[in-house]
Amino acid sequence: ANLISKSADCLPPELRRSLSIGHQRQRQVLELGAGCGLPSLVCACRGAQVVATDSADSLPHLRRSIDANASSADQTKTSIEVATLDWANPNKELLLGRDWLAVIGADLFFDPAASATLFDSTLRPLLQSRPGLVCAFVYKRRGLAGEAEFLDRLRQAAGDGRLEWSSEELQPMPEFADPSQHRLVTVRSKGCG
């Protein structure tokens, strides 16, 4: 629980405020490539209704992790739904059928083709359909081609003025053995189109 609490510091301040003081719309958060679901657990602990998504073959591990780490006493377990999401062919009802407050993800940018698919088929439709949507992605800087591909696509999309984004270095958490550089990329949609 202490690690989950400290991990909340990696969320952008705007998202932390929205999750802690509430928001006009229901506080729904979509996690992409959830893996073990730590960011989903952090958001659920802060009061969000979360959908943690990953590939079909990763779901059993994700469900076990959520079940093992979520506390039913504080309703965290019931605040997290687990679902399959294929970035190349995303479920449009899941992706666009909810009023997301935020989209989050951690360490998603490995492969250039997957990063391109993530941005073009999953993230771009979300940003285009939800003015004001906040997306927050934390990743360990490894110099991989997938990082460059994702950031290049973000820069190109920002060029039309419909979204704004920033990237900042995070302070390492002493709980991790490898305190190498981590970055937070925050994206906000400005309008439909």
Please describe what this structure looks like.
InterPro entries: Methyltransf_16, SAM-dependent_MTases_sf. Pfam families: Methyltransf_16. The protein is α/β, with parallel strands linked by helices and 193 residues long. It has one domain: 3-Layer(aba) Sandwich (Rossmann fold). Helices cover 37% and strands 24% of the residues. It contains seven helices and seven strands; from the N terminus they run H-H-E-H-E-H-E-H-E-H-E-H-E-E. It has helices spanning 2-7, 13-21, 38-45, 59-69, 92-96, 112-129, 145-158, and strands at residues 28-32, 49-54, 80-84, 100-106, 134-140, 163-170, 182-189. The protein has a seven-stranded mixed sheet, sandwiched between helices. Helix 6 (112-129) links the parallel strand 4 and strand 5. Helix 6 runs parallel beside helix 7. Mean pLDDT is 83; it is low at 1-8 and 21-25.
Annotation keywords:
SAM-dependent_MTases_sf; Rossmann fold; seven-stranded mixed β-sheet; 193 residues; Methyltransf_16; alpha/beta; 37% helix
CATH class category: Alpha Beta
Please, how many helices? Answer: 7
Whole-number tally of structural domains: 1
What is the percentage of strand-forming residues? Answer: 15-25%
Rg measurement, Å: 16 Å
Number of strands: 7
Distance between the termini: 41 Å
Strand-pairing-aware structural class: alpha/beta
Task: Give a short summary of the structure.
The protein is of the alpha/beta class and 193 residues long. The chain is 37% helix and 24% strand.
